[in-house]
Fold this sequence. Notes:
Elements: E1 2-7, E2 12-21, E3 28-38, E4 45-50, E5 54-59, E6 64-68, E7 73-78, E8 85-91, E9 95-100, E10 104-109, E11 114-120, E12 126-131, E13 137-142, E14 146-151, E15 156-162, E16 169-172, E17 178-183, E18 186-191, E19 196-202, E20 207-212, E21 217-222, E22 226-231, E23 237-242, E24 248-256, E25 259-266, E26 270-275, E27 285-291, E28 296-302, H1 325-333, E29 339-340, H2 369-390
Antiparallel strand pairs: 1-2, 1-28, 2-3, 4-5, 5-6, 6-7, 8-9, 9-10, 10-11, 12-13, 13-14, 14-15, 15-29, 16-17, 17-18, 18-19, 20-21, 21-22, 22-23, 24-25, 25-26, 26-27
Amino acid sequence: MELVAGCYEQVLFGFTVHLEPEACGGHKKWTPVADFTHHAHTASLSAVAVNSRFVVTGSKDETIHIYDMKKKIEHGALVHHNGTITCLKFFGNRHLISGGEDGLICVWDAKKWECLKSIKAHKGHVTFLSIHPSGKLALSVGTDKTLRTWNLVEGRSAFIKNIKQSANIVEWSPKGDKYIVVILNKIDIYQLDTASVSGTITNEKRISSVTFLSESVLAVAGDEEVVRFFDCDSLVCLCEFKAHENRVKDLFSFEIPEHHVIVTASSDGFIKMWKLKQDKKVPPSLLCEVNTNARLTCLGVWLDKVTDTKSDSLPPAAEPSPVSEEQSKIINKESGDTVQEEEIQSKPNTKKCGSTGDSNKPAKGNNLVSTKKRKMVEMLEKKKRKKKKDK
């Protein structure tokens, strides 16, 4: 497995984690070893996503970079967004969905790396998006203070729900029976069958990252050194533990045989791996840690073997939407909220859509020809934009 993390310093770090049996024949020892550092972006990294083959990174430089983890090479860059890439999500091995400060949500073919659909999703920034486990539905939140439900089968907006403030995170539960919306230090828990809030969890500080450890247990990190586990049914804090010396920026959890692991990344530069206990009231134990000496912003874990059972692609258009007519009626009847049904035409930006090409040089090297050319083109484009504004 490989830990991958982005930082303010524009670098993507890769650490291979070795599992070695200890001399006494006890538990396996987890050892992270530096594999690569890659400096392809021209601004800080803002998002990272992984599937069984690729790692993709988004940045404030408005580009998405693709890394082939099997061959250890940079695969190219996707240029479509006009603004910071705020979120990246893979569904299986065939599709990638990106969101940005330009208000766009883009669906990408993760084999050919073509932009299949570009949707003007929010009037402000897209701050976060989450794909339902079925692949037929997605949720997004933005600075326009809306929570939007997307029918991915038809590529259109299904519902728009006005919320009181701009949400910074939205996340489906593993089974997709519930979802959470994070606003500052509060987490609203919604049930899919009623589309209404079943409870609210309040954290001490502003929340920066969440991850479901099970259908009912949520790990929460924010502008503090502590990570907390909450029960989504009882709304009780099951446990808390000091994970870092500075605020925790991102969380990632995964399961492999004999281990359920949560990974944390912090502004203190450390990436840490923790072994979760069966009883979530007991704090996890530290497996290993590594210091990057950088201000980390985003985190992912690349597993050489696919451990999930997700289908390889989003469903074909012939399949029905997972939102039934009954659910539609329930959502529309919800009191106190303005909910609209809306269809948004796809507006692909053909001038800027697509990949900048394939580089066959190792990801370990920082002197990639394709990257240098791209940076030159970006600088020229920015100069042209400034000239037009001045006129």
